[in-house]
Amino acid sequence: MNHEHDLFLQATRMHRAGTKIFGRGLKEIGMTHGLAAVLLHLEKIGEDCNCRELASSLEIEPPTLVVLLQKLEHLKLIHKRPKPGAKRNTQIFFTAEGKRTLVQVKDIYNQLCDILLKGVNPDHLALATEVLEAVYAAQLTASGLTPPE
């Protein structure tokens, strides 16, 4: 096997281990990866976005997002409102409880990063991030996809 391929194996192993640890923290607050991702992306692209924009940011299909949004609404973490002047366009907003939960999710994520990246040279981390972004861009190009908005 070429050493160039070791990057993919290491990235997969790192992702799998990090996902398990992150998942344990999320479980303690009654969240899943999918639900947490929706909250994080809603903050990233801004409240009042619509389902299409949020699905694009998450890189998932709108029907998949609809299921996650229904769960978040049931948990009273988000609410949807019709966009003024647009009958079929719904905007998504955090509830007060949703904002508190988002803070918890970000705390869990930041604690995980602090633990896993402790002792890593910031220059090495920046280089690794640059390499992974380049590989991701190549994956999008090879698959004919466009980067999320």
Output mean pLDDT. 91
Low-confidence stretches: none
| Structural category | mainly alpha
Tell me the CATH superfamily.
Answer: Winged helix-like DNA-binding domain superfamily/Winged helix DNA-binding domain
CATH domain topology: Arc Repressor Mutant, subunit A
Sheet with most strands: strand arrangement: 1-3-2
Oligomer kind = single chain
What's the domain count?
A: 1
Rounded to an integer in angstroms, the radius of gyration calculated over CA atoms is 18 Å
* CATH architecture identity: Orthogonal Bundle
Portion of residues in beta strands equals 5-15%
SSE order: HHEHHEEHH
Could you give the distance between the termini?
A: 36 Å
User: What's the CATH class label?
Assistant: Mainly Alpha
Description:
The protein has a single domain, classed as Winged helix-like DNA-binding domain superfamily/Winged helix DNA-binding domain (Arc Repressor Mutant, subunit A), CATH 1.10.10.10. Helix content is 67%, strand content 8%. It has helices at 6-28, 33-45, 51-58, 62-74, 96-116, 122-143, and strands spanning 49-50, 78-82, 90-94. The chain has a 3-stranded antiparallel β-sheet with strand order 1-3-2. A hairpin with a 7-residue loop joins strand 2 and strand 3. The N and C termini lie far apart (36 Å). The mean pLDDT is 91. This is HTH marR-type domain-containing protein. One of its GO terms (biological process) is response to stress. InterPro entries: HTH_MarR-typ, MarR/SlyA-like, WH-like_DNA-bd_sf, WH_DNA-bd_sf. GO terms for molecular function: DNA-binding transcription factor activity.
